[in-house]
Design goal:
Elements: H1 2-9, H2 22-35, E1 44-49, E2 52-59, H3 62-73, E3 80-87, E4 92-94, E5 100-102, H4 103-111, H5 116-119
Parallel strand pairs: 2-3
Antiparallel strand pairs: 1-2, 4-5
Length: 127
C-alpha cells in the first residue's frame, strides 16, 4: 500500500527524493482514521512533526486504540507513531504528586503489598 501511495503522490522516500510534508501526512492519517469502520475518530487529534505522528484524545476501547495505531503505521510517510490515546470512561485517581493510578490496577497492587500511594515512590528495598 505504501508503494501505491508513493507512486500516486510522487512522494517516494530515499536519497534525492521528495519527502511527504507533515501537513499531507496529517491529512492522510486523519482521513484513514475517519474511514476505518472500527475506529470512532471524532475525539482523536493528530499531530505530525518530521513524519512522527502523535495521537491524542479518547477512544472507546483498547481495541480501538490498537487499531488506530496500526492504521496510522500503514499511512505513507509515517516514520513513527506515538500513541497517547486514552480509553474513554476509564476511571483514574490522581495522587497528590500528580501520578495517576487506574482503579483496576489497585487490586493487583494490593496483592503485591503495594497501595496506590506507595506505588509511585522511588524506593527499592532489597531483602
Amino acid at each position: 500500500r505504501r508503494a501505491q501511495d508513493a507512486v500516486r503522490t510522487g512522494s517516494v522516500g530515499g536519497p534525492g527524493m521528495q519527502r511527504r510534508s507533515d501537513d499531507r501526512i496529517r491529512e492522510s492519517v486523519s482521513e484513514e482514521l475517519t474511514r476505518h469502520p472500527g475506529i470512532d475518530a471524532s475525539e482523536i487529534e493528530v499531530r505530525v512533526e518530521n513524519g512522527r505522528v502523535t495521537l491524542t484524545g479518547k477512544v472507546d476501547s483498547r481495541r480501538s486504540r490498537r487499531r488506530a495505531e496500526r492504521c496510522v503505521e500503514q499511512c505513507s510517510g509515517v516514520a513513527e507513531v506515538r500513541n497517547r490515546l486514552r480509553i474513554a470512561g476509564a476511571a483514574f485517581e490522581f495522587e497528590q504528586d500528580g501520578a495517576e493510578v487506574s482503579r483496576r490496577q489497585e487490586g493487583g497492587m494490593a496483592q503485591s503489598g503495594l497501595s496506590p500511594g506507595t506505588a509511585n515512590r522511588s524506593e527499592v528495598v532489597v531483602q
